[in-house]
Structure formats: structure tokens, C-alpha cells
UniProtKB/TrEMBL annotation:
Residues 381-614 form the Cullin family profile domain. Belongs to the cullin family. The keyword Ubl conjugation applies. This is Cullin family profile domain-containing protein. InterPro entries: Cullin (IPR045093), Cullin-like_AB (IPR059120), Cullin_CS (IPR016157), Cullin_homology (IPR016158), Cullin_homology_sf (IPR036317), Cullin_N (IPR001373), Cullin_neddylation_domain (IPR019559), Cullin_repeat-like_dom_sf (IPR016159).
Length: 751
């Protein structure tokens, strides 16, 4: 079997033959016919591989310019035919035909681009010409879109369709609007010509502004504010949904929303607040309109600056209601406790408004707080009323309350307390009421009293409550002292003259802790004076170096009185009343002057206590003159043996000072006036703060010193700059401070 050898034929290398102009023209003509077929939708009969090779060869043989210009002319030719057709189409179908033409043009250009891909990669890049697809979009813009019979009509049809939709009329399919708007966007992006912004967006935004301006003015003039809010909210939601459906770019969405907000909200914000009956200010008067106010807030919050109108309306409403409460209290239409209950009711109501209607907004909470502070700090009356309200709570209001209820009520008090700038004035009034409760045993609960002090301590610091805690400590020590004294008396004190010494319970109080009573002691009955001497000896033996000052203007006594037919009553009276009644053991009748001389009771207090013993309900003494008041020192008072009561133990209450003798009564202190001793305490506090600050800083400017003093004392009261300046001048006079030689506005500490 023989082997067959393979034969190889080696041919010489074929030289490169360049394509001549004639061949290039022939090749281009083939490509041109193919492009025509693509435009005519006969692309299925074409060989894209062959067409790609032809385009490749033209570019490869340096005929790229022929190919590029030919393609440009061919596209232009077809678009010219297209625009003539579109120009004659009626408005009713123009958007539809425009959208279809644009879609077909995009498909055509994609197919042409695929054939001429090699040209895009080489010739176009090297010559810095437009890529084929972008060239097609560019030619579409200048030939079709910018045709005088196309651009204006399409734009007007788009605007009219959107306007009809806003008017609630049937409109063209949104897909047509979206397609035409998409065409403008793509034309501008491909050509870097801002077609969309230049030819549509500006006119669209202007027409939107005009539409909503006219509609809002018309609707608001014929409807209530709450109806307008519903309408405006619906309009904004519709506009947002329409923008999303039409795929509007963010560059349009943002200014579009700004225009809608401006015309529907910002332009009418004040009107919506002030409209009678239905405006936000009117809604605030009705506790049931929380939902309507919330809807208005939700609308306004889209334009943050407009919410200030709602906050301002809230402030004005709170101030107006607060001034009404103050006016009622000033006229006597409501007592102090009722005033505070009114403030608490206001606070609960407007806190609910802020929490629900303002959705708990922090700035609204701050403005509410400032509004309460504004009317509560117009004078010191609010501090006095709050102290009276707390006194009522701790005497009777909290009786039978659980621990949780007590805490809740005290927390409400602290809420109002936080609004007060003159906290030291409240402390002054509170201390006076606390002293009466502790000394009279009228507190509903020691735990409640201490809980209140704890709340104040947590709010203002330990210095604020040091004296209050000292009062409780004095009462505790006094209870122990009474037990010790009673044990001592039972063992060591014998009857004097066959009579047992009076039983006396003494509260020993630290002078600095309690409200000062600068009243001269009255002349006490001999039996009482003897009991006092016994207690003083016992006390001073145990506590050497101390001094006791008896406060006869305070205290209570139980007097056993015998009337006609041997009827007896135990009279619960004040110390002054006890001194007066004991005189009638010696004789039945005295004049006012005689009683004053015998008891040394101050005139106004004497008159008040005498009238209390002559009231129709408790007529223990008979007054010689007629009328409610006491006319002169010669007015007589006679023991009434016919007095009777159903009760064995009878408490004799004191009449008000104003009912004693209106003509001679001391004028009431102005509600705006700070009590004199509080003013004095403030002077000391400010001076102490100044010295403390300057001792630490050594040197400080006037404004910085004012600011630091105000900051340190803000938890007690807010001193005015003028008040601080006076104290600085006083300290300079006393050589605690001096002015710097170089700058008189600088203070220096003098060691």
C-alpha cells in the first residue's frame, strides 16, 4: 500500500487594491437604498452583515466623509417628507402622530447606528463629528420639532391637555403626553440644546402659576378655610401624581412644587389663619376642631416659613385667654385657686392642640411655653395665686387621694411653676401658707407636703428649699420637745395654789426659716404667762445661750366658757381672742380703748378679733354701737351670757381684714408689686452673686457681668439690667469693686 503525499500550492501575496471613487459611490448607493428600505419598514429583507461590511469598507478605504454626509442627507430627506406630512395633520391627532413618528424615528436610527457602528468608532471619533444616533436626533430637532407648524402646536396641545386634566375634563391618554415630553427631554440631552427647558418647561411653569393663582383666589373667596385646606391638599397630591405619571424630570418637579406651594399656601397663609369662623385663629377657640387644625398644619408644614403664622395665632390665643383669666381674677369674679385651675385647664387644652394638631412640633411647644410665661409674669399675682392653690390642695384638695393622684396633681403645679420668672415671690407666699398649715396642723398629709418640697427642690436646687426643709425639721424637733417637756412637767412641776398649771404646746421655730412676724408681743393673761415662764426655764436649762421670742400674733387656744343656765362650750380661738375673752372674767363690759390698754394688741388686729367675737353666728360679745365697724375708742363690748351653739366645741373664725373698717384699712398691695422683704432679699442675692463672680474672674466687662448674674439667678427670679447696675454701683461705693482706669466699662474686684 503506497503512501500519498500532500501537495501545497504557494501563491504570491496579493497587493492591497484601494477602492476608487466609482466603487465607493456604488457601495454608498447600496447603503442608501438599504436606509430607504429601513425607513419604509422593509428591513427584514436586508442583510445587515453585508451592509455592515459595505460601511466598513467605505471607512477603511478613506471614504468616511462620503458615507457620513450621505447618511446625513438621506436622514434629512426622509425627515423633510415626515414634517410635511405632520404639518398638515389636524390638532386632534397631532400628539398621537408625533409620538408614533418619534418612536419610529428612534427605531430607524438604532438600526442605522448598528450598520454604521464601525464609522462611529473610527471616523466619527477621529473627526469629532456627531455619532449617527445623535445626528439623527439633531436633524429631527431642527427639521421636525422646530418647524413653525409643529413646535407651537405640540406645546399648546400639551399645555391644554394638562389644563383640561386639572379642570377635571377628559384628556388625551397620558402615555401620549409622556411620549411627547420624553421626546423633548431626549432631544435636548442628545443635542445639549435644552430643548425641553427652552420650549416647554418655562411656559408650563408660568401657566401653572397663573392657573393656581386664579383658582385659589376664586375658591377662597367662596368657601371656608377648612374647605380650602381640603381642596389645596387634594390639588398638591394630584400635581405630584401627575408629575410622576408624566415622568417629569427633577429639574421641573422641584420648581413646580415650589410654585404650587407658593400659590396655594404661602400666598394665602395669613388669610387662612385670620378668616372669621373658619380660620386657624377661630378654630383655636373650639376644642372640638383639633382634626381641622391638624389638616391645616399638615398643609402649612410643606412651606416651613408659613407655619410661623399658625404658631403666632396659637400664641395670641393663649395670651388672650390668659389675660381674660387675669381680668376675672382682678375683678373678683374668680378666686386665686380658680385662676390656677383655669391656667391648668388652658395648659391641658393647648398642650393637646400642640401634641395633636401641631404633631408635637418642638417650635410650637416652645412658643406655647413663651406665651404662658408672657401673661403669667405680667405681675406677681400668678405667683401668689399658685401658692394659694397649693395651700388649698395640701389642706383639703388631696384628701383621700392615692399616691399616684398626689404626684399627678403636684406635677401640674410644677408645670405652672416652671412658667413663673419670679419664683422667689412664689416661695415667699408658699412659705407663709406652709407656716400656717404646719402650725395649725391643717396639712392633709405630711407625705404630700414633703413631696411638694421635693418637687421644688428638683426644679430649683437645694438652696431654694433649704428654709422650707428647715421648717419641717423645726416641727419635728418641737414634737420631741413637747414630749420631753410634758414628761418633765409631770415629774417636777407641782400645783400652785391648788391649781394645775395650764397645758401648753409650744413650737420652737428657728428665726431664719420662718416668715418673719415683726409684731410686738401682747399682754398675756397671768395663767398663760406663768406657763410660759415654766417652759422657758425648762428650755433654757437644756439649751444655754439661746433666746426665746414669743410670737403672740400666732397660736391658738382652747377656752372653756360658761354661759347662762350653766351651759358650757369649749371655744377654739386665736391667741388674741383668748386674751380679749379672759378680760371678761373680771367684769362684763369694756370699751375699745380699755381692751387695747389691757392687752396691748395692735389696733387693726384688735378691731378684727373683736368683730369676730361679735358676728351674728358667734355673738359671744355684744357691741354697743350699730353697724359692722367699730367707730371709736368709746365703743363698748359686753359679754353675752345668752350665747348658745349646738356644738360642744366651737371654732370662732376670723373675719377678713377688709371687713373690719374699710375707711381705715391699709390699701392693698398692687398685684405688680414685689413684697418689700422679697425686694430686700433680691438686693442681697444680686450683690452676693456679683461678688462671687468677680472674686472668681477678677476683671469683667459690664455686659458680661450683667449676663452672668442673670444666668446664675434665673432659677429664682430675672433681675433687670437696671436693678443689677444699681447693686454694682452700691458695691463700688462700699469698695468691693472698682472701675478700670483704662476702660470705665470694665469692673475689677477689690481684694
Amino acid at each position: 500500500m503506497s503512501e500519498r503525499k500532500a501537495k501545497f500550492n504557494i501563491k504570491p501575496f496579493r497587493a492591497h487594491v484601494p477602492m476608487d471613487q466609482s466603487s465607493a459611490s456604488t457601495t454608498w448607493n447600496a447603503l442608501a437604498r438599504a436606509i430607504d428600505e429601513i425607513y419604509n419598514r422593509n428591513a427584514s429583507q436586508l442583510s445587515f452583515e453585508e451592509l455592515y461590511r459595505n460601511a466598513y469598507n467605505l471607512v477603511l478605504h478613506k471614504h468616511g466623509a462620503l458615507l457620513y454626509e450621505g447618511v446625513s442627507d438621506k436622514i434629512s430627506s426622509h425627515l423633510a417628507q415626515t414634517v410635511q406630512r405632520l404639518a398638515d395633520i389636524p390638532d386632534s391627532s397631532l400628539l398621537d402622530d408625533m409620538a408614533r413618528t418619534w418612536a419610529e424615528h428612534q427605531i430607524t436610527m438604532i438600526m442605522v447606528r448598528d450598520i454604521l457602528m464601525y464609522m462611529d468608532r473610527t471616523y466619527v471619533s477621529a473627526q469629532r463629528r456627531r455619532p449617527v444616533y445623535e445626528l439623527g436626533l439633531h436633524l429631527f430637532r431642527i427639521i421636525v420639532w422646530e418647524h413653525p407648524r409643529i413646535q407651537d402646536r405640540v406645546r399648546d396641545l400639551l399645555l391644554n391637555a394638562i389644563a383640561s386634566e386639572r379642570a377635571g375634563l377628559l384628556t388625551d391618554d397620558r402615555t401620549l403626553l409622556k411620549a411627547n415630553l420624553g421626546m423633548l427631554l431626549e432631544l435636548g440631552q442628545a443635542d445639549h440644546s435644552n430643548v425641553y427647558e427652552r420650549d416647554f418647561e418655562g411656559v408650563f411653569l408660568a401657566s401653572t402659576q397663573e392657573f393656581y393663582r386664579n383658582e385659589s383666589l376664586c375658591y377662597l373667596s367662596q368657601n371656608s378655610a377648612t374647605d380650602y385646606v381640603t381642596k389645596a391638599t387634594k390639588r398638591m397630591e394630584e400635581e405630584k401624581e401627575r408629575g410622576s405619571a408624566l415622568a417629569l424630570p427633577s429639574t421641573t418637579e422641584s420648581p413646580l412644587q415650589n410654585i404650587v406651594h407658593m400659590e396655594l399656601i404661602e400666598r394665602h397663609a395669613r388669610t387662612l389663619v385670620e378668616m372669621p369662623q373658619s380660620g386657624f385663629a377661630a378654630l383655636l377657640k373650639d376644642e372640638t376642631k383639633t382634626q381641622e387644625m391638624m389638616e391645616m398644619f399638615d398643609l402649612f408644614v410643606r412651606v416651613p416659613s408659613s407655619v410661623d403664622n399658625l404658631r403666632e395665632a396659637l400664641c395670641e390665643r393663649i395670651k388672650t385667654d390668659g389675660k381674660a383669666l387675669l381680668a376675672d381674677q382682678e375683678k373678683g369674679a374668680s378666686d386665686a385657686a380658680s385662676f390656677v385651675r383655669g391656667v391648668l385647664g388652658m395648659r391641658d387644652r393647648y398642650d393637646h392642640v400642640v401634641t395633636v394638631s401641631f404633631r408635637g412640633e418642638k417650635r410650637a411647644q416652645k412658643r406655647m411655653k413663651e406665651s404662658f410665661e408672657h401673661f403669667l409674669n405680667e405681675d406677681v399675682r400668678a405667683a401668689s395665686c399658685l401658692a394659694v392653690y397649693v395651700d388649698e390642695l395640701l389642706r383639703v384638695g388631696l384628701k383621700g387621694s392615692t399616691e399616684a393622684q398626689v404626684k399627678d396633681e403636684l406635677q401640674k403645679v410644677i408645670t405652672v411653676f416652671r412658667y413663673l420668672s419670679d419664683k422667689d415671690v412664689f416661695e415667699n407666699f408658699y412659705k407663709q401658707h406652709l407656716a400656717k398649715r404646719l402650725l395649725g396642723g391643717r396639712s392633709v398629709s405630711d407625705d404630700a407636703e414633703r413631696a411638694m418640697v421635693s418637687e421644688l427642690k428638683a426644679e430649683c436646687g437645694y438652696q431654694f428649699t433649704t428654709k422650707l426643709e428647715g421648717m419641717f425639721n423645726d416641727m419635728r424637733i418641737s414634737r420631741d420637745m413637747r414630749d420631753s417637756y410634758n414628761a418633765h412637767k409631770s415629774l417636777n412641776v407641782r400645783s400652785v395654789g391648788g391649781k394645775k398649771p395650764l397645758d401648753m404646746e409650744v413650737d420652737v421655730l428657728t428665726l431664719g426659716n420662718w416668715p418673719s412676724q415683726n409684731v410686738k408681743p401682747c399682754q398675756l393673761p397671768k395663767q398663760v404667762q406663768a406657763a410660759i415662764e415654766l417652759f422657758e426655764k425648762f428650755y433654757l436649762d437644756k439649751h444655754t445661750g439661746r433666746k426665746l421670742a414669743w410670737q403672740t400674733s400666732a397660736g391658738q387656744a382652747e377656752v372653756k366658757a360658761t354661759f347662762a343656765n350653766g351651759k358650757r362650750h369649749d371655744l377654739l380661738v386665736s391667741t388674741y381672742q383668748m386674751c380679749i375673752l379672759m378680760l371678761f372674767n373680771e367684769k362684763n363690759s369694756y370699751t375699745l380703748g380699755q381692751i387695747r390698754t389691757a392687752t396691748q394688741i395692735p389696733d387693726m388686729e384688735l378691731r378684727r378679733h373683736l368683730i369676730s367675737l361679735c358676728t351674728p353666728k358667734h355673738r359671744i360679745l355684744k357691741k354697743g354701737s350699730k353697724g359692722r365697724g367699730i367707730n371709736s375708742d368709746d365703743d363698748t363690748f359686753t359679754f353675752n351670757p345668752e350665747y348658745s351653739s349646738k356644738l360642744k366645741r366651737v371654732r370662732i373664725p376670723l373675719v377678713k381684714e377688709s371687713s373690719v373698717n374699710p375707711a381705715s384699712a391699709t390699701p392693698a398691695q398692687s398685684p405688680s408689686t414685689v413684697p418689700a422683704h422679697v425686694e430686700e432679699d433680691r438686693r442681697h442675692l444680686v450683690e452676693a452673686a456679683i461678688v462671687r463672680i468677680m472674686k472668681a474672674r477678677k476683671s469683667l466687662s459690664h455686659n458680661d457681668l450683667i449676663a452672668e448674674v442673670t444666668r446664675q439667678l434665673s432659677n429664682r427670679f430675672n433681675p433687670t439690667p437696671q436693678f443689677i447696675k444699681k447693686r454694682i454701683e452700691s458695691l463700688i461705693e462700699r469698695e468691693y469693686l472698682e472701675r478700670a482706669d483704662a476702660d470705665r466699662r470694665i469692673y475689677q474686684y477689690v481684694a
